[in-house]
Amino acid sequence: MEHIRAVPDGVSDADTPSGAPARASTSSQSLNAELSQLFQLCSRGDEGAFARIYDATSSRAYGLALRVVRNPAHAEEIVQEAYLDAWRNSSRFDPARGSAMGWLLTIVHRKAVDRVRSAEAATQRDVTYERETRPFDHDQTAETAQSSLEAQRVRGAVATLTVVQREAVELAFFGGYTHTEVANLLDVPVGTAKTRIRDGLIRLRDAMGVGS
Amino acid sequence: MNDIHHLTGAYALDAVDDIERARFELHLADCDDCSTEVLSLREAAFLLSETSVSLPPPSLRSAVLRDITKVRPLPPIVTRTPVVQRRWFPLLVAAALAAILGVGATVWQPWAPTQEASLSAADQVMGANDAVSVEVDLGESGRAVITRSVSLGKAVITTEDMVDAPSGKVFALWLQSPEGQMLAAGLMPAGANNQVMLTGDAATATGAGITVEPAGGSVEPTSDPIAVFDFSQAT
Hints:
The complex is a heterodimer of chains A (212) and B (235).
Chain A: H1 26-43, H2 47-69, H3 72-88, H4 100-123, H5 127-133, H6 149-158, H7 163-173, H8 179-186, H9 190-208
Helix pairs in contact in A: 1-2, 2-3, 2-4, 3-4, 6-9, 7-9, 8-9
Chain B: H1 8-12, H2 18-28, H3 32-48, H4 58-68, H5 94-102, H6 115-127, E1 132-137, E2 143-149, E3 154-160, E4 169-176, E5 182-187, E6 194-197, E7 207-214, E8 227-230
Antiparallel strand pairs in B: 1-2, 2-3, 3-6, 4-5, 4-7, 7-8
């Protein structure tokens, strides 16, 4: 399936030289700089600016929500609520505290996780059953991103994680499980799961050259 | 290294339950290292979603853009004023204050600071004819009710299902004087369910609050309150 990713004018995804050290790419930096400015316009009520934000980010937001909740209708609801929150809180976005994309996806992820947890609290999920039926390392929604250079960079960084780190990070992030549930799923002590998640993210961060 | 610092990764991934989140956010308020680490780990985590991109249906775009036409963006947060100089509640009007002062320190006798005596003192406040209460619901973090008797000049806090204070910290109690000063009113003991008498003059206080302070307490609040009790709202 061919994927078309909306990108603001003047921003190209293809300007990261292959073989370059894995640093935060100039394309994602300029995208985030543009998103920051757009959020500033939104805080003053500029609906057109918000439409541009939506076009530049919605496939990331929807893809993330879908990956966590699996159900397309639920993913749509989550994304719709998340964008409304982002609009309402646009004046509260602070570029000094992280990227605009990260800020937006944080809102989406939190809502997605809340959704799966409240649904699961209602059904008293059986983690053994979940483990068998919720594969975490097969990108069911990600085939569309295979060709993206940025995604290739991320895959390269993920490959620097140990198998157990990657497993713990993906269960927590894409599975929406708490670290205590991750420990249970992996049959390791809670402290071990917590450490694997943290160490895995630190390694990922350092491999991607972000936030340092 | 304290164990709570290791929660940065799980917190950055929302892999915490509500109580863990509340506790860790209290910790983040005081730990610059953890705050910085959370921000950088969160950035790294969201790069992961670069591998999960999916085009939403076009109808979603119209729904989102229709939604925002009905909602006004929140105003920006402007400069913070120092916590200790900020009143938590407006002053009561002078007339009401005079009425309270008039019946202030009539009945109160100091109680011996033993557990048994303080329980019975708490019971007296709870049972006083003029006892009124303000409840604050902290959601997943618990509930707290402060009951005050103006005639006894005392207030009692009752907690249910309260989370523990962060490691190395305590929950401190404060009474706001009519002049707007925060006066130390004791520390909460450990435990989810407690009933504790606030120290100090509760008769004239206009409100009370709970803050998170370093173990041993502070002479004045060093952080924003996690709960505020406005006595003008007491019923």
